[in-house]
Amino acid sequence: MHIAIAGNIGSGKTTLTSLLAKHYKWTPHYEDADDNPYLNDFYEDMQRWSFNLQVYFLNSRFGQVQEIRKGKQKVIQDRTIYEDAYIFAPNLHAMGLMTTRDHDNYLSLFKLMDSLVKAPDLIIYLRASVPTLVKQIQKRGREYENSIRLDYLKRLNERYEAWVSSYKSGKLLIVDIDENHFSESKEDLGKVIRMIDAEINGLFK
Disulfide engineering: 77 pairs with which of 4, 5, 63, 68, CB 3.0-4.6 Å? Predict the structure, then answer.
């Protein structure tokens, strides 16, 4: 079984991945943001490093999905391969931070990878307003995220909503992070768990 968590920067993907892995005894697969050799450079100069960053993420995510599907474990993944292709890369292109040539090259690579992998059995989308994202980004205090602009987060949110509204590759569950504070409230985490149980009950036994 493959469960994946999707959401904007600061929405709580890694936290929820950890909490659900502990509760269900699932194997977590985390986004290797801290080990990414391009991330610091990207936030300093997005135009120069956007293509390099996105290809690194795409390659990393593709490797994760292949590993997940080959194994027999129940896995929960922090972020999906779709977010790179349908949200982050086109957003950078639209903002003039990735050339059309690089974007077309990137999408061609994604389409090839997408044809070779299966969609997650369930995607959990963490929906959050920009003020909530900013609050959580500041709370975790990653230095390279200090320069993230509000309009960048807003644009990403808009693309997330467009992607979620048209997603048809598998089951999708939406959790409103403005209302649900699962990282601080056991009651709220319980609500998320009950929602997940309702989605997966009987399907993967």
Answer: 4
- Per the annotation, the verdict on 84 as an active-site residue is no
pTM of the model: 0.89
Catalytic residue among 32, 34, 35, 78: 78
Alpha-carbon dihedral angle through residues 139, 9, 168, 204, given to the nearest 10 degrees: -50
**Eight-state DSSP code of residue 11:** S
* Domain boundaries defined on the chain: 2-200
95-137 per-position pLDDT tens digit: 999 999 999 999 999 999 999 989 999 999 999 999 999 998 8
For 2-200, CATH gives: 3.40.50.300
